[in-house]
Amino acid sequence: MATGRRIAVIGPHSGTRTLLMGSYFEQARSDAPTIPEALRVLNAGGPVDFHFGCQLMPNANLSAADLQTAVALAQAADYVVLALGISNPALESEGSDRPDTLLPACQSQLAAAVVAARPKAVVLVLVNGGILSIDELKESVPAIVEAFYPGDSGGTSIAESLFGVINRWGKLPVTIYPAGYSDLVGIHDYDMAKPPGRSYKYFTGQPLWPFGFGLSYTSFALAQPYVLPSRDLGADPQPFAVSVTVTNTGSRSGDEVVFAFFVPMDLQDKDSLPPLPRSKLFAFRRVGLEAGQSATLEFQVVPRRDLLLADLDGNTSLHPGRYRLEFTRGPDSEAVTQEVLVQGNAIVVWPFPAS
């Protein structure tokens, strides 16, 4: 967003302060800025208006007057920040499960009206702990920021990121499922692999956004070679290093995250194992790079720590067989891969029950 323009912040999180912190904090900062307050500091004198629209309460309603006010603010603004989400403890908390992963109905109604009024000027900022399935808004909103509960400096971080003062975006630590997913899995069924599966390890459907997804104001790339020579680790696997080079190929500085996954390919004792995960994260590195700058990241792979799977008896072990290591910037990005072979017998690292 450019500074000096009129901004309208609309939604139940447009004026929240302590709710940006979730509920796990000792004492809330009384001077923690709200999203509109933080935007005003950076907006070079441009006006910032805000309106709650509806409350962060179960079964909250959106009145005709509040809807009219929100739409009028949106129509008068150069940019609209839709500050939506849920809150702890009103809408999510320990011991209180949500029936679905949808936005509260009043917020969906508010968002639809605001987006219809200013379809190309809206940035959606989500404040939440549990995931939110926003299937329709994904298709209609130009930009979406998943802030989760960003803490007492969250308002400032959101404002700095929207204005482009900083470019330190992260990657999703969870899979964002579509709206109908909660109808397909039982809340009391903890079988991760049961179709359609849970998490990036087992989910076989099409997520709204996959684990590890994240965008930036610049662009990055991993350097070749993309396929490294295979490695035989023998029956007594020792730690080894894999180096991956990442380059900022864009025009401004920014942060990138490189993930390290392993994929079990062909394990000798797979009959003693539950369904194998599609992949499993074992490390990640975050790096800040200036435009045109490259960095070589060294990952220390410790097989007895990083390539473990739990068997049907609950023992966590390193199992003989072939694995593929994947070093990637996220889903659908290029990847540096290496196959490794573990020989011999399974090595129990964490026996069950623990002694």
Strand order of the largest sheet: 2-1-3-4-5
Count up the helices. 7
Mean pLDDT: 95
Number of strands: 16
- In helices, the fraction of residues equals 10-25%
Largest sheet, described in full?
Answer: 5 strands, parallel
Structural class: alpha/beta
Radius of gyration: 23 Å
Order of helices and strands: EHEHEHEHEHHEEEEEEHEEEEE
Q: Which parts are unreliable, with pLDDT below 50 for 5 consecutive residues or more? A: none
Report the principal-axis shape: globular
Span from first to last CA?
57 Å
Assembly type of the shown chains?
A: single chain
- Note the beta-strand portion: 25-35%
Q: What can you tell me about this protein's structure?
A:
The protein has 355 residues and is of the alpha/beta class. It contains 7 helices and 16 strands. The chain has helices at 35-42, 64-76, 105-117, 135-140, 154-162, 199-202, 303-306; strands spanning 7-10, 48-51, 79-85, 122-127, 143-146, 220-222, 231-234, 240-248, 254-267, 280-289, 294-301, 309-310, 316-318, 321-328, 335-342, 347-350. The strands form 4 sheets. Strands 2-1-3-4-5 form a 5-stranded parallel beta sheet, sandwiched between helices. A 5-stranded mixed beta sheet has the order 7-15-14-9-10, with no helix packed on it. Helix 1 crosses helix 5 and helix 2 packs parallel to helix 3. It starts with 6 loop residues before the first strand and ends in a 5-residue tail after the last strand. 31% of the residues are buried. The mean pLDDT is 95.
Task: Describe this protein with a few key phrases.
355 residues; alpha/beta; 16% helix; 7 helices; 5-stranded mixed β-sheet; 5-stranded parallel β-sheet
